[in-house]
Amino acid sequence: MDQLHGRENYPRQIGAHKHGKWVGVCGGIASDTQAVPLLIGLGVDELSVSVPTLPAIKAQVRERSLSDCQSLAQHALTLETAAEVRNASPVR
Predict the structure, then answer these.
(1) What does the alpha-carbon distance between residue 57 and residue 35 come to, in Å, rounded to a whole number?
(2) pLDDT of 26-85, one tens digit each?
(3) Are 48 and 24 in contact (CB under 8 A)?
(4) Which stretches make up the PEP-utilising enzyme C-terminal domain (predicted)?
């Protein structure tokens, strides 16, 4: 499954929160400005990003409301392909 699609990970994140656990993402996907709204909407608590992408990631977090990110994530979960998910992301 493509890492932007998220459908596979969504239930685990919900389960983690139900058990008082935080969900963190690191690496390339956490530093991908297109993925950040989806990750936030899926319930990710912490992003570990590369230093060069930090300003852009902070801007993404500041510019979007949690409810908008959650709506985007819910919509993305209904899509069939990674390409559709990428096209649904407000960041290109």
Answers:
(1) 10
(2) 989 999 999 999 999 988 989 999 999 999 999 988 999 999 999 999 999 899 998 999
(3) yes
(4) 16-64
Cα 49 from Cα 75, distance rounded (Å) = 25
Which ranges of 19-81 would DSSP assign to H, the alpha helix? 36-41, 54-63, 66-76
φ and ψ at 15, to 5 degrees?
Answer: -60, -40
Domain ranges of the chain: 10-87
CB-CB contact of 80 with 23 (8 Å): no
Q: How far is CA 71 from CA 17, 37, 42, 50, 75, in A?
A: 19, 10, 9, 27, 6
Residue 82: alpha-carbon gap to chain centroid: 13
